[in-house]
Structures are given as structure tokens and as C-alpha cells.
Amino acid sequence: MNLLNFYFCYLFSIQILILTVYSFTPVGSEEVTGDPDEKRDIADLITSRGFDYEVHYVTTQDSYILGVYRIINPFVSENEREKLRPVVIQHGFLSSGSTFLINSPDGFASPCDPADQLLASNDYNDTHTNNLGFLLANRCYDVWLANSRGNHYSRNHTTLNPDKDKEFWNFSFDEMIAYDTPNLIDYVLNVTKFESLGWIGHSQGTLIMFGLLSEKPAYSLKVKPFIALAPVTYVGNILLALRFAAAIPGALWTLRKAGGELGDSSTIIKTTSQFVCGRWQPKSCDNLVYPLEGYTPSMMNQSRVNVFKSQQKLTGTSVWNLVHFGQNVNSRSFAKFDFGTIENKIRYNGPYPPKYKISQINSTQVAILYGKADRLGDPKDLQKLVKELKVPLFKDYEIPNPKWDHLDFIYAEDLYKTVHTVVLDVLRESQIELEKQRSGQIAKI
Ligand SMILES: *[C@@H]1O[C@H](CO)[C@@H](O)[C@H](O)[C@H]1NC(C)=O
Ligand SMILES: *[C@@H]1O[C@H](CO)[C@@H](O)[C@H](O)[C@H]1NC(C)=O
Ligand SMILES: *[C@@H]1O[C@H](CO)[C@@H](O)[C@H](O)[C@H]1NC(C)=O
Ligand SMILES: *[C@@H]1O[C@H](CO)[C@@H](O)[C@H](O)[C@H]1NC(C)=O
Ligand SMILES: *[C@@H]1O[C@H](CO)[C@@H](O)[C@H](O)[C@H]1NC(C)=O
Ligand SMILES: *[C@@H]1O[C@H](CO)[C@@H](O)[C@H](O)[C@H]1NC(C)=O
After folding, report:
1. What domain count does the chain have?
2. CATH number for the domain harbouring residue 387
3. Can you give the residue ranges of the Partial AB-hydrolase lipase domain (predicted)?
């Protein structure tokens, strides 16, 4: 490769980075509102709503240390606490556990009764908060907020230093599937002494569970139910701009060779706003990049844009994770990381990376909630996933609003009404189902 080629590859790679980061970061007015949630991390957010919390450091089999936050409802006595059903909430790409705590300024701790979980969502008079983490804690669930390796809360390892050892960043969602997810599940079940837990994922948070259930179907016994918000596995029909970027010759190769951390997105945003938009007003700049984003601005509380943006600073992942998505966009498959022919042969015993086999999933408790207008989890890609599933879905729910997009599951103003009531119902139906199976087993004895 001559120098000029290299230069272009480099420029294009940067372009992919920019496109990606823009797609996951909300843009809006620049003025500072001084909302207290802007300066809060997960721990502060939890205590600001009157809850307590525990941080658990979960060490994975490959030595990464994940920072996991457990929300404690102070109105539940210690003895009662161990009876609460555990639910893990798993964020998506370039995100963190705070995603489920910041939608609205409410969600204050309130007394609960585990029996309430079996009430239909409409019968219940709770604080109808749009913050899923607080909502579930106020419904007497034992809520665990996961953080994927490499994000702000999980930049930790038993021997590697993420700031100094580049090797730390040699991972993609393959490792989240092979280690983070099963290790976290086993950890939570060990602590709570439950046999199974509920799992709610958004976007990449669903991809890693579909991956795990494909690779290790026995985890279907431990995950009941799996609720997938904006499910993603196949990405061949993702937003055209991202497809275009991933297809630029040499770009993914350059990024793979570069490796490292997909860094502070706010810095990249700031630099590119200046670079791309030049002397234009920020507003017209927003309009320019709007078509790239996976959410609907008119549906979110505009007064909270600065909170959403500031939380985006406490995220992070590896460049390889982005490259992995790009590879699957190009190959239109749900496959493992492509290291190139030579290294693939060493790692996988063949020239191509193996595919995740959706058809191996045997869980009968998979619920999907999706939007018609999802530009990052395209309906055509979802159809492909559903077609490959050999088991019936526990729930197949299309959000009635035809404009519903990928990140509307995080930012939309009517999350409680549109999404969370359905989530609560699925959790309830799952428990009723488990109860039935349990009494069926007792009857047999
Ligand atoms: C909800 O409120 C109504 C009327 O205020 C009351 O009749 C009902 O019992 C309440 N339900 C619960 C679960 O507290
Ligand atoms: C890294 O993990 C250890 C526990 O193994 C914990 O004590 C430490 O606070 C963590 N560091 C960070 C920066 O999260
Ligand atoms: C379960 O937890 C106990 C202590 O709480 C620990 O000694 C044990 O190693 C854990 N087992 C697994 C499989 O994590
Ligand atoms: C799914 O397959 C695994 C591994 O073969 C098995 O242990 C488990 O019982 C199966 N689960 C269901 C729900 O059939
Ligand atoms: C980690 O990735 C870099 C490229 O980013 C590569 O040079 C290095 O050999 C990799 N290390 C391991 C242990 O795979
Ligand atoms: C919108 O956000 C602002 C700022 O956080 C807040 O004061 C207001 O109550 C929010 N509106 C709703 C409907 O949650």
C-alpha cells in the first residue's frame, strides 16, 4: 500500500468512527441547562432517587473486571430482599447502565410488595417513571445494571491497564458473548441463590444474549425471560450511511490494525462538528446529521438532551467492536470476528469466521419489542432472525407508533406507556409460566 492509499484509508476510517458516534449520541441545543443529572454517574443517579446500591466487581474467565450496579430499594427489609426476583438490564453499543436511569427526572424509591409483580400493569398505581431501572426496583425486582467490558464502569482487568496496555482493547462482542454475559449470569445466580433470572437487553444487549443462547443453549434454563428491546443480530440492512462507510475498501482493515479504544465520543463529536459544520450554526449542523441518527427528536423531552449527551461521555468500547459490526454489515451475516485468512485459520481452523447459529436457540421465553422505523435494527434484518428461530416467541410486539426508532427505546418521552407496561407484562407472564411448571412438577411427584 502506498502512502496516498494509506492516507485515504485513514481518512475513511475516521469517517466511519464519526458516523458511528453520531448515530449513538443525541444532538440538540448547546446551552447548558444545569440539570443535576448531567453530573451524575450511575451511583449518584441511584442515590439521587432515594435508592441504595451495591457495586459488584465481576471477574470474567478471561480476567476482565466488570462494574455491575445493584439497585437496593430501601423500603424492602433485608430478609425480604433475598426473595426478590433478579433482573439484569443490559445496555447497547457505546452505552452504559445509566441508560435505564436518565430518561426522566422522576423514579423515586417507593414501598413495594413482591406479590405486586403478578398484578397486570394497568391495575397498578406506581410512579409511572420512564426509567426502567427505578420502575423495576419499585415493583420489587432485584435490579442489576450490567456494564459491558471497556465502558467507563468496566475499564478494569486483573493484569492489563486499559490506559497503557493496548491488548486490553483486543475484544469485540464475541467476548461479551463468551465471557461477560454467562459469567455475569452465574455470578448473579450465585449471589441471589435463584435458579433463573430475567434479562432485558437493548440493541447490542440483545445481540449478546442471542449469541449466548446460540452458543450455549443450556443458558435458556437460567434466563427466563429474555426481553429484547430493539433486537439486533443481523445488520446487513442497517442505515445506508453506515453500510456505505463499512464498505469503503480498506477502512475496516485500517481500523482493525489500529485497534485500541473507541474513545471519548464527546471529543470526537466536538471536533467533527467544527470540522463538518464549519461556520454554520449548530442548529443547521444538527439538521445535517439528523438523518444518521437512530431516534426521533420530536418524541423526546428536549429539556433533557444535555443529560443524555453528558451520560454519553461515560460510555466507551473498543475499536474492534465497531469493526466487528462493520464486518457483519458487509458479510450480511451474524458471524464471529474476522481476523483475516491467516489468523482465522489459527483461531477457527478455517479461512472464514464461524457464524452464530440462531437455530440452536431453544428458549421458549424470548420476547421481542421492536419499532417499525428502526434504522439500526432494520425490520428486514429482524425478519431474518425470527425466521431462523426454531422456537416460538414468548411475545412478538411491534410498537404501535409507526415512527418508533432504535434509540426511542431509551430517549422517547412515553416509554412507560409504550414500552415498560409491555415489559412488566412479559415479566409477569413469565413468572406465571414458571409457577405453572413448578406446580406441574410437584403434581407429577
Ligand atoms: C389503585 O388505586 C385505586 C383507586 O385509587 C384503588 O382502588 C386500587 O386498589 C389501587 N391499586 C393498588 C394496586 O394499589
Ligand atoms: C477494579 O476492580 C477492583 C476489584 O477487583 C476494584 O477494587 C477497583 O475499584 C476497580 N477499579 C475500577 C477503576 O473500577
Ligand atoms: C459463589 O459465591 C461464593 C461466595 O459467596 C464463592 O465462594 C463461590 O466461589 C461462588 N461460586 C461461583 C461459581 O461463582
Ligand atoms: C436447551 O438445550 C440445552 C442443551 O442441550 C438443554 O440443557 C436445555 O434443557 C434445553 N432447554 C429447553 C427449554 O428445552
Ligand atoms: C492485539 O491487537 C493488536 C492490533 O490492534 C495486535 O497487534 C496484537 O498482536 C494483538 N494482541 C493479541 C494478544 O492478540
Ligand atoms: C423534561 O425534562 C425536564 C428537565 O429534566 C423536566 O423538568 C421535565 O419534568 C421533563 N418532562 C417530563 C414530562 O418528564
Report:
1. 1
2. 3.40.50.1820
3. 42-103
225-246 residue pLDDT tens: 999 999 999 999 888 777 887 8
Burial zone of 217 (CB within 10 Å; 0-12 exposed, 13-18 middle, 19+ buried)? middle
Binning pLDDT at 50, 70 and 90, where does residue 410 land? very high
| Measured distance CA(374)–CA(408) in Å, rounded | 9
- Which residues, at least 6 apart from 142, have a Cβ–Cβ distance to it below 8 Å? 70, 81, 84, 85, 86, 87, 192
**Which residues sit opposite 52 in a β-bridge?**
72
Q: What is the pLDDT of residue 279?
A: 44
Cα 363 to ligand 4 centre (Å): 8
From CA 76, how far away is CA 83, in angstroms rounded? 10
pLDDT at 29 over 80: no
Chain centroid to Cα 23, Å, comes to 14
Task: Identify which ligand lies nearest to the alpha carbon of 62.
Answer: 5
Looking at residue 335, the DSSP 8-state letter turns out to be B
* Given 374, 378, 381, 405, the catalytic residue: 374
pTM of the predicted model as reported, rounded to 2 decimal places: 0.90
Q: Whose CA is nearest to atom 8 of ligand 4?
A: 218
> Is residue 226 helix, strand or coil?
strand
- Residue 203 a catalytic site member: yes
Closest ligand relative to 188 C-alpha: 3
- Whether 151 is in the pocket of ligand 2, judged by its Cβ within 6 Å, is no
DSSP state of 300: B
Instruction: Read off the pLDDT of residues 315-371 as tens digits, 9 standing for 90 and up.
Output: 889 999 999 999 999 999 999 999 999 999 999 999 999 999 999 999 999 999 999
Residue of 406, 408, 420, 430 marked catalytic = 406
Cβ proximity of 64 and 154 under 8 Å: yes
Q: Measured between alpha carbons, how far is 202 from 148 in angstroms, rounded to an integer?
A: 12
Q: Exactly one of 203, 265, 318, 430 is catalytic; which is it?
A: 203
**Among this protein's residues, is 406 annotated catalytic?**
yes
Q: Which ligand is nearest to the CA of 225?
A: 4
> Cβ < 6 Å from ligand 6: which residues?
35, 104-105, 301, 303-304, 413
Q: Which domain holds residue 123?
A: 3-444
Find out whether 213 and 223 touch, Cβ atoms under 8 Å.
yes
